[in-house]
Amino acid sequence: MAFSAPVSPSPYSYKCNSGAFTRDASSNRKAKVSPFSFLSFQRPPIYNFTSHVPSSYPSADVSVDESLERGQLPKGHTWSIHKFGGTCVGNSQRIGNVAEIVIKDDSERKLVVVSAMSKVTDMMYDLVDKAQSRDDSYVSALETVLEKHKSTAIDLLDGDELASFLSRLHYDINNLKAMLRAIYIGHGELWSAHMLSSVIRKSGVDCTWMDTRSVLIVNPVSSTQVDPDYLESEKGLEKWFSENSSKTIVATGFIASTPQNIPTTLKRDGSDFSAAIMAALLRARQITIWTDVDGVYSADPRKVSEAVILKTLSYQEAWEMSYFGANVLHPRTMIPVMQYDIPIVIRNIFNLSAPGTIICRHSVIENEDGQSLESPVKGFATIDNLALVNVEGTGMAGVPGTASAIFGVVKDVRANVIMISQASSEHSVCFAVPEKEVKAVADALEARFQQALGAGRLSQVAIIPNCSILAAVGQKMASTAGVSATLFSALAKANINVRAIAQGCSEYNITVVVKREECVKALRAVHSRFYLSRTTIAMGIIGPGLIGSTLLDQLRDQAAVLKEKFNIDLRVMGITGSRTMLLNETSIDLSRWKEVQKDKGEKADLRKFVQHVHGNHFIPNTVLVDCTADSEVASHYYDWLRQGIHVITPNKKANSGPLEQYLKLRALQRQSYAHYFYETTVGAGLPVITTLQSVLETGDKILRVEGIFSGTLSFIFNNFIGARAFSDVVREAKEAGYTEPDPRDDLSGADVARKVIILARESGLKLELSDIPVENLVPGPLRASASGEEFLQQLPQFDQLMAEKQQDASEAGEVLRYVGVVDVVNQSGAVELRWYKKDHPFAQLSGSDNIIAFTTERYAKQPLIVRGPGAGAEVTAGGVFSDILRLASYLGAPS
Ligand SMILES: NC(=O)C1=CN([C@@H]2O[C@H](COP(=O)(O)OP(=O)(O)OC[C@H]3O[C@@H](n4cnc5c(N)ncnc54)[C@H](O)[C@@H]3O)[C@@H](O)[C@H]2O)C=CC1
Ligand SMILES: N[C@@H](CC=O)C(=O)O
Ligand code: NA
């Protein structure tokens, strides 16, 4: 399988430190398909930059050849360093990919740090464990290690390269058998470095592998840490370069030697550290850490599904994030490269189209106008399983040494203080420690301050268990006003109680302590506050019938454009019919909601549905879109608006229902900041309601509204001509999607009467539906038919009756039209079948056209006319969609 993974051109420019820092345009070149790779890819983007290099390191200005001539290290910007972890070299295909990446990096000099193939280090540890515990299965386990490398090599190599590698492998394995206790150090790295260099060499590139035990010198400082000896390592490198001239080098990660020449490892994060030390020693221009994620996330994506990949991080931000457990480089790894301002790029070897995260000294992403495109808060991280200790008492104020005494005790019990907070009143000192250490801390504090507690100078040493820390990290927080206000208001909105707060004056982070069980909720709340657009709207669609499902299709097709162009982020969190509903925590995939509903749909429950759509505290706005024709659903609008939920609907039931309820609903709408839009209840997508409202709002007075308000009846009378049977035309209207769910609602005039009432009330009349006289076109005997379908089946019996009415009008040179009238002057309304001359505008319609004439004080001589298709799935759903966008623009979306 081959696919190409283009590196998408970035609309941003990167700035690193004082110099311009832009993506090399050549990185967008198309790559050739490799014979041994399942991927075709481009070489990794190389970031050109001008960085601040301390003047005491002149080597960056010395040309490589010059320095070689002088027998020095070939340092400088010609070097590009790569590091590939165990998963990157996990099998022959992947080693092939890695080789391709190295080959395609057109830097003059390249140094590649590799880890052992994935699982090999664990296998080696396991061998040692087995051997130590006298379990002789280590012999077969060693065979597995041998086989893994052998088969990989056979896949990748041939001829002399293969023979040479296998001979080395067998030699090593034989040695290992004899000295199993010592072997775990680094053989995996030696083998993968050897193999990869051979693979690269196979393509004609001069490549040598480096056993870093002969180069990197480190001093052990603890069982988990070593300090590189840069001077000695530089000498080691110089010696190595005096013996090797290759410009492409594959170096073993993780392993090094002590000054006494004893092989050792770089402990945790070893290979990253190897790459960083090499980058510093060589003053490389960039280091790429290849891994299996797209970069550094703004929050743990397992907890926050909205988490995004950060484009840039400063070294300090990366430090802070990693302190709080984010999957970034270990701070120790960054120290060597920070010294020389070498950018670190974190990239996904399995997704070459992702540009990754760049970590450098001071990074900002700006648009063309120089405005920052990033949130002042870059990321959020949490630490669980903590307890707060609060030492409190009036006797602490102004007594020097109290804090020192407290933390002296904490140190004595070797507890790890994660954060400290002390109010300036000095009445209390509060700090967080790991839950498992808190008992020892509390006991020791009580013992130490027994006297002060007894004398009442200290009132208590209190423990608050089950806490978590939530930290917001970002360099720009310091210079941006209102960041903490925003953070705390997001927490307040999500009803999270903050137990303690700490903010270092560097302001790289703001730390809050919350209850452990609320931590994920808190994390999501703050993340969405900083990362979601203000016009992110959680939507619940009720009634996915003809209009509802057409709306869902339109949303599916348009959502990306809206997000991209207008920053409007519409998320359908739930869809409910009358029997089943589908809910999703983030948003439903609208390209397959029907299948998913079949599989994962649950029993419909409107209360639960609304709670789900509105109940997540992370999306700032909620709208319920009622696409049913159900009065029961409409009866909930009042409650929804009261909860701050916006309501949009084509359902006429609320606005044409009992007057009292209608007035209550509209009064609430005016008082609240929740919006209620219903443009499609009259004339579908035609701007009927908004036209009437703007006429009134601008001070005009409505005198009369008259028109053809039924798409169905318009269609029927436009097409009920010649010898056509009335019942056939009615069925056609139903099939075209013009009718109500039960077509008798159209033929009875009920639908038109509802529209007349809606417009009458909108014009200020206080009328009930029963005040409107209606001419019912449903033949008497069919009014009691059990269903709309049964009615349609029986309708042909009455074709003759309708044909006669039609003929009467036709003989008089006129046509039949079903019209509605709102007479504002006389405070009345009517719905009736009328005859019109063939040249009357009402006789000129076609299809499902509606025509609505507004006579007002300003439009007194000639009415204002709105005309066009007034029913049908696309136009109606489009009208509902347009109400949704109106809502977004009321909420602040750009226009
Ligand atoms: N068809 C058109 O041209 C226009 C329709 N409308 C209005 O749009 C609304 C929908 O019409 P259609 O899509 O044509 O009808 P439809 O019958 O195709 O769809 C209605 C859907 O609502 C569901 N439903 C009914 N009661 C429900 C409940 N309590 N909870 C959840 N779901 C429920 C039904 O199962 C059905 O899927 C109606 O109010 C209609 O008056 C408005 C303007 C034009
Ligand atoms: N059934 C209605 C649909 C629009 O409200 C009509 O025919 O006009
Ligand atoms: Na309309």
TrEMBL record:
One of the GO biological process terms: methionine biosynthetic process
NCBIfam families assigned to the protein according to its UniProt record, in alphabetical order: asp_kinases, PRK09436.1, PRK09466.1
Quaternary organization: Homotetramer.
ACT domain boundaries: 391-466, 472-549
Cofactor needs: a metal cation
Keywords: Amino-acid biosynthesis, ATP-binding, Chloroplast, Kinase, Lysine biosynthesis, Metal-binding, Methionine biosynthesis, Multifunctional enzyme, NAD, NADP, Nucleotide-binding, Oxidoreductase, Plastid, Repeat, Sodium, Threonine biosynthesis, Transferase, Transit peptide
Catalytic activity reported: L-homoserine + NADP(+) = L-aspartate 4-semialdehyde + NADPH + H(+); L-aspartate + ATP = 4-phospho-L-aspartate + ADP
Recorded coiled-coil stretches: none
Name by which UniProt lists this protein: ACT domain-containing protein
